[in-house]
Amino acid sequence: MQESAQRRPRPEETRAWESLVAAARRTVADGLVVGTSGNVSVRVGDTVLVTPSGVPYDRLAPADLTGVALDGRQVLGTLVPTSELPLHLAVYRATDAGAVVHTHAVHATAVSTLVEELPLVHYMAAALGGPVRVAPYATYGTDELAAHVLRALDGRSGCLLRNHGTVTHGATLDQAYDRTAQLEWMCRLWLTAASVPGRTPALLTEEQVAEVGERLRGYGQRP
Fold it and tell me: What is this structure's pTM?
């Protein structure tokens, strides 16, 4: 049973919760999850705000704000945190992530059942740090799954979970979400190309993807 919240949310946590709820709802609208599958988290200082377990995202309200310390102790809210809390916390402890997005995206999950690593069908793999690995299957919500994910994420900002879905992280919630969308798109692209009878998709080399990674460092508008 979860303990009562120990304190009231700070203004920055309230704002982060609003963004988290919007992102969680977007995963449904964009077809990346069905029902309450998948989960989203964002780090604010030493507190991790997470979607609660089993609550439809369109019903989440400001009063439902749910937060835990990095050791998993609940410090905000009374709703039970997502069952994938061990996975989220493992990523925060091992990386400098500011947000984590986990989905059950259809094309990405399909690819996770077919390969050990997403074939380099597009250079945007560089945005995730290189070839996207598939973490071995483990029961959801377990420390075993969290450990598999950390290994698959080594040097990467996204991975696939076998027979399960995707995990991406980023400095911001927007970045983590964009990486999820890119990963799903690349999986859909590879499945589409690989389905053409008698043809094999042309793939990039790791060196070509690494070159793109260097170019992406200067991509976009400068502050």
Answer: 0.94
Q: In this structure, are residues 49 and 20 in contact, taking their beta carbons and an 8 Å threshold? A: yes
Tokens of 178: 């964009």
Distance between CA atoms of 145 and 39, rounded to whole angstroms? Answer: 15
The dihedrals phi and psi of 148, each to the nearest 5 degrees, come to: -60, -45
How far is C-alpha 223 from the chain's CA centre? Answer: 26
Active site residue 84: yes
Task: Provide the mean pLDDT of the chain.
Answer: 94
What are the beta bridge partners of residue 160? 134, 166
Cβ neighbour number for residue 131 with a 10 Å cutoff: 17
Burial of 19 (0-12, 13-18, 19+ CB in 10 A): middle
Structure tokens at 36: 């309450």
What is the rounded CA–CA span in Å between residue 60 and residue 223? 34
Residues 101-125 pLDDT 10s: 999 999 999 999 999 999 999 999 9
Placement of tokens 């911001």 in the chain: 172
Catalytic residue among 84, 144, 184, 211: 84
110 class by beta-carbon count within 10 Å (0-12 exposed, 13-18 middle, 19+ buried): middle
